[in-house]
Amino acid sequence: MNMRDRMLAGELYIADDPELARDARRAMSLTHRLNTADPTDDALRRALLTELLGAFGEGSEIRPPFRCDYGYQTFVGARTFANFGLISLDVATVTIGDDVQIGPNVQLLTALHPVAAAPRLEKWEAAKPIRIGHNAWLGGGAIILPGITIGDDTVVGAGAVVTRDLPPGVVAVGNPARIIRKVEP
């Protein structure tokens, strides 16, 4: 199994594999074009995001600057809005539902690195997918760690670090994020 297949299967892989490096360069080129495009050219930004991402839903917007590892592992639903500075380290899939609101400087981090010294020195890494439910709201500066699922209608407070799955319809804040209440209907 090649490194790209290992990565896509969620197994340990080495990121500087030539095929993965080519994929990363493609994403860097497209994000550079996106991030330097005329901010009033909505059609060009949409075309670049459609080419870059695994899916980019109707009526969605990602304001530049935007950064990702590969792009094709990030899937954005319809009518979703991401403010300036979204980072989607999409070594594993990042699935963002419909009608999601994402504040500035949010980080979606799927990558994992071994704690053991030897495999880390050998540059092995892995990843776990992130899933953001429909109508969720991620406050500015929130950090979502590998393998996390955030339920529909859930609110993550600004600056929160989400280390555990969050169920639907709750408000979570802090580092680590903790549930403080249910979302009002």
Features:
alpha/beta, 29% strand, UDP N-Acetylglucosamine Acyltransferase, domain 1, 185 residues
Uncertain runs with pLDDT below 50, 5 residues or more?
none
**The CATH topology, please?**
UDP N-Acetylglucosamine Acyltransferase, domain 1
In percent, how helical is the residue content? 10-25%
CA-based gyration radius: 16 Å
Proportion in β-strands: 25-35%
Corresponding CATH architecture: 3 Solenoid
Number of helices: 4
N- and C-termini, Cα separation: 48 Å
CATH superfamily: Hexapeptide repeat proteins
| SSE class | alpha/beta
Largest sheet: 7 strands, mixed
Number of domains: 1
Written account of the structure:
This protein is of the alpha/beta class. It has a single domain, classed as UDP N-Acetylglucosamine Acyltransferase, domain 1 (3 Solenoid). 22% of the residues lie in helices and 29% in strands. It is built from four helices and 20 strands. The strands form four sheets. Strands 3-6-9-14-17-19-20 form a seven-stranded mixed sheet, with no helix packed on it. A five-stranded parallel sheet has the order 2-5-8-13-16, with helices on one face. A five-stranded parallel sheet has the order 4-7-10-15-18. A hairpin with a 4-residue loop joins β19 and β20. α2 packs antiparallel against α3. The longest helix has 19 residues.
